[in-house]
Amino acid sequence: MAVPRNLGPVALREIPDPCGIRQAKTLPASAYSSAEFYERERPSIFHHDWVCAGVVDEMPATGSWTARVVGGLPVLFVRDKSGELRAFLNVCRHRASPLCEEGEAHAGSLIRCPYHSWLYQLDGSLARASGVGSPDDFDLADYSLKPVRLAVWRRTLFVCLDEHAPAFDVGALGAAIDAYPIESMELALSDTNDRPFNWKVLLENYSENYHTPFVHPEIDTSSNEDYPMISDGVVLYAWDRPLRPSGSRVDEIRATMLPGEPGWEELASIKMDGPYGIGGYLTVWPNLMMNVFPGACLAMWMEPIDATTTRVQRRLYVRPEIDATVQESIIDAHRRVHDQDVDICTRVQRSHSAGIDADGVLATVEERGVYFVHEHLRSRLDV
Ligand SMILES: [Fe+2]
User: Fold this and answer.
1) In sequence order, what E strands does the chain have?
2) Interval between CA 204 and ligand 1 midpoint (Å)
3) What domains, with CATH codes, occur in the chain?
4) How far, in Å, from the CA of 341 to the mean position of ligand 1?
5) Which residues contact 366 (CB under 8 A, 6 or more apart)?
6) How far is ligand 1, taken at its centre, from the CA of residue 116, in Å?
7) From the CA of 227, how far away is ligand 1's center (Å)?
8) How far does the centroid of ligand 1 lie from the alpha carbon of residue 229, in Å?
9) Which of 39, 145, 239, 348 is positioned for an S-S bond with 88, CB 3.0–4.6 A?
10) CA dihedral 267, 269, 271, 275 (to 10 degrees)
11) Each residue's pLDDT tens digit in the chain (383 positions)?
12) Are 173 and 235 within 8 A, CB to CB?
């Protein structure tokens, strides 16, 4: 059974309510629309925290490389001949040319800068700088590509652009899905879209269930007693809990879906009872959202483009043995629910972009996830 590191289920239940939520308010419009606010977020969050850069199985094959933008910075992902994946800033140490255009795939034994043909090994070291002549004290060893820290967690890939930040640690709640077989699931849906809202609008939307009966009326929440949320400060974890466990195994599991409690590890092996019937929802600060269901898993991550534009990527994985009709219904449900969320987020952003502050209080139970986002923001920006 996957018991969270250093923190059993009892301890998890004892995490106190975030008492500050009783004084909390919706953030001002500028937090979601001002370029100046966004320029503060970039260094404090996206160039400092561990940021989800995608899924690891979309990374280059052995002996090849590609480039992505992560947290607004150009990152080169390289897999060497031994299969080890590394990341570097996608900038030649000579005159700052990108080594590879975003999304391009290259293979070979040396990475060639297209500007002056400096050549790098796949481990990032500078192999040759033909034509450089004899600059004072020039030593190839001093001009390796700048490394970017990298970590893989449950099929997702994280990078950290701050060499002094603590090591990647998704925390106790992240470890709770260790037994969930994400890696053996098959890709069923992949999409990438630039959306007209600030990244926090979607993160907050994802992190609360308050809107579900109104924005997603087809999701039946009537059988749910509540939607508990817990946080260890790194991950916010929420799950559906049934109103009246009937005594069936499925209902027992639904009642005790707190990570580490008996039944959790069986989540992936129980029969699928329809999209969104049973779910666990993880918000991993700052930009990954992961849903786990008995038969499917959705990873959704964001790359902010500017204050009011966000690239949203989603990958839906399903258990291969699931019936094709059920798979289709899962895919359809995820499309519909996401479209509904994108629609409300787009409309909310219009108010933010108009500069109109909503100063409403937060629901003290239902919007703990929104408060989780605000608390992280405050800790990074001192707002
Ligand atoms: Fe929603």
Assistant:
1) 51-55, 64-70, 73-79, 85-89, 105-107, 110-112, 119-121, 126-128, 147-153, 156-160, 186-195, 224-226, 229-231, 235-239, 241-242, 280-284, 288-292, 296-306, 309-318
2) 10
3) 9-45+179-381 (3.90.380.10), 51-160 (2.102.10.10)
4) 5
5) 208, 209, 210, 227
6) 50
7) 13
8) 16
9) 145
10) 50
11) 233 333 344 344 444 555 688 888 999 999 999 999 999 999 999 999 999 999 999 999 999 999 999 999 999 999 999 999 999 999 999 999 999 999 899 999 999 999 999 999 999 999 999 999 999 999 999 999 999 999 999 999 999 999 999 999 988 778 767 777 889 999 999 999 999 999 999 999 999 999 999 999 988 777 666 777 888 778 888 877 666 556 666 666 655 555 555 555 565 555 555 566 677 889 999 999 999 887 889 999 999 999 999 999 999 999 888 888 888 988 999 999 999 999 999 999 999 999 999 989 999 888 989 999 998 999 888 76
12) yes
List of residues 6+ apart from 339 with CB closer than 8 A: none
Residues composing the chain: 383
- How many Å lie between the centroid of ligand 1 and the Cα of residue 202? 9
Q: How far is the CA of 291 from the centre of ligand 1 (A)?
A: 12
The alpha carbon of 178 and the centre of ligand 1 are apart by a number of angstroms equal to 26
> Omega before 147 cis (within 30°)?
no
Q: What does DSSP assign to residue 326?
A: H
| CA of 340 relative to ligand 1 center, distance in Å | 7
Paired tokens of 94: 């000579």
Q: What is the pTM of this model?
A: 0.90
